[in-house]
From TrEMBL:
InterPro entries: HNH_5, HNH_nuc, NA-targeting_endonuclease. Residues 6-59 form the HNH nuclease domain. The keyword Ubl conjugation does not apply. It holds the Pfam family HNH_5. CDD domains: HNHc. GO terms for molecular function: endonuclease activity. This is HNH endonuclease. Keywords: Endonuclease, Hydrolase, Nuclease.
Length: 143
């Protein structure tokens, strides 16, 4: 498990010391972490679902699910893979360049009670606790 200060430091740096919602610069010690897809609705503690947030915006957002949560979670997932924060536990192990290539092709996301699933053209990545623990390849049926 990753220490909360390490998570906060990464998210703060990734979001360039600004509130993800209002864009205002915030000091590290004044930063809160917002679960972009709310934790109360099943959102995870993973890098791709956390954004730097000022206290005011975090209070105002409450448990609202942003309309763009799918797009934002996918983009933040791609960034976390690129930054080496999401790693693979799939055998055989994928190197960083291979993971970045897979992440780049992600087009959709869905959640279940166990994990988050990112889907690209012909594959799914099952992610839990910032680790890709399963990959399934499939072929689309021609119509």
């Amino acid at each position: 498990m990753i220490h909360k200060k390490t998570i906060k430091a990464y998210v703060y740096q990734r979001d360039q010391g600004k509130c993800f919602h209002c864009g205002k610069s915030i000091r590290f010690n004044q930063t809160t972490l917002d679960h972009y897809f709310p934790k109360s609705r099943g959102g995870t503690e993973e890098f791709f679902n956390l954004v730097a947030c000022c206290k005011f915006c975090n209070r105002m957002k409450k448990s609202v699910v942003p309309k763009d949560w799918l797009t934002i979670n996918i983009e933040l997932f791609k960034k976390a893979v690129l930054d080496g924060k999401v790693i693979s536990q799939v055998e055989p192990k994928y190197n960083q360049d291979e993971l970045v290539g897979l992440a780049h092709g992600i087009e959709s996301i869905f959640r279940n009670k166990i994990n988050t699933v990112f889907e690209g053209d012909g594959y799914r990545l099952y992610v839990k606790e910032n680790k890709i623990y399963k990959m399934v390849r499939f072929h689309h049926e021609e119509e």
